Amino acid sequence: MILSVENLVKSYGKHSVLKGINFSIEVPEVIALVGPNGAGKSTLLNAICNLIPINEGTIRVLGFDHKDPKMFHHTSFLKDATVLYPYLTGLDHLYFVQRIQKLSKTRVDEVTLKVGIKDYASRKVSTYSTGMKQKLLLAMALMNQPQLLIMDEPLNGLDPTSIISTRNLIKELHQEGTCILLSSHTLSEIDLITKKILFLDQGKVYLEDLSLSTNNAEKSYLERYQDVS
Ligand SMILES: Nc1ncnc2c1ncn2[C@@H]1O[C@H](COP(=O)(O)OP(=O)(O)OP(=O)(O)O)[C@@H](O)[C@H]1O
Ligand SMILES: [Mg+2]
Hints:
alpha/beta; four-stranded antiparallel sheet; 32% helix; binds adenosine-5'-triphosphate; binds magnesium ion
């Protein structure tokens, strides 16, 4: 079992966001988490990675309870650029991850090459564009060669070339056996990456396998959400 979420309930005060989420991922696949703004995608991903407290439920990641920091030996979470330090360089960030995860230094060269950030890795993050930061975050997330890679809107701010290279990287990682759970609003891109979509709707999730239907992601999305006012 790679990930199992059972009866996950999460409220912010009286505002109930996740109302009993149940799903599991058993084999390495690419799953896109989809839903309108405010549906609770980031809340779900943050809860899985134990970045926010949950009200109820059990979450297990690669055999670990999600509150056990050991789960991060084989899991990475790519969130947003707020975790970056402007006055440090990209390489500073990567060597920091290398040290705390006790990885080989050569891994830094491998990921800078794989993600294509070699040209600017020695520059301070304060000089990076949004897409450059996004790629540094991806490089940091890949340092530990994760079995499960969780990403909250990894395509945000990327130019077309970077979207294509990120798409190819996701496919490559998947072929290498990495399981990927990513949220995105770019339905056309999701269609190019995966057939498995986890829709978040009114606090519950619904897994849809588009290979079993004639729908594309946009058609499924509109069928599910068009009546929501
Ligand atoms: N720290 C917080 N305190 C109170 N309410 C919050 C907090 N974080 C999120 N919410 C609320 O929870 C709901 C879900 O937010 P969340 O950020 O998980 O949505 P999302 O699906 O990731 O949206 P988006 O597509 O805009 O990223 C929203 O109604 C939001 O206002
Ligand atoms: Mg979000």
